[in-house]
């Protein structure tokens, strides 16, 4: 693996030969590159469309999850508010009952 990397590095440092330069120029100027270029562009377009669709689906899922979480939080808050209201009502009633009992004075039993 190291030998391969070293060979690749060495090859990239060597100057390009005249034959390599001519071949690269001919390939770039020929019509043989156009179908490959077109196929690459089409593949890139399909990938972009696929990525856009996946991103939209992910955004919808996040939106749905957020809406569900908000709904659940609201329901829990309402339930807790009802519970606190009931406790306050019971405590108020208990205090009122105790106040009435104290205002009557000590009771004398039979």
What is the element layout, followed by pairings?
Elements: H1 2-13, H2 18-29, H3 33-103
What are the defining features of this structure?
mainly alpha, rod-shaped, 3 helices, single chain, 110 residues
Overall description:
- With 110 residues, this protein is mainly alpha-helical.
- The chain contains three helices and no strands.
- Helix content is 86%, strand content 0%.
- It starts with a helix and ends in a 7-residue tail after the last helix.
- The radius of gyration is 40 Å and the shape is rod-shaped.
Q: Over the alpha carbons, how many angstroms does the gyration radius reach?
A: 40 Å
User: Could you tell me the mean pLDDT?
Assistant: 85
Main sheet: strands, sense, barrel: none
Query: Helix fraction?
Result: over 70%
Number of beta-strand segments:
0
* Euclidean distance between termini CA atoms: 105 Å
Strand percentage: under 5%
Q: What overall form do the CA principal axes indicate?
A: rod-shaped
Helix-strand makeup class? mainly alpha
Residue ranges: pLDDT <50 for 5 or more in a row? none
Q: SSE order, as H and E?
A: HHH
Count of alpha/pi helices: 3
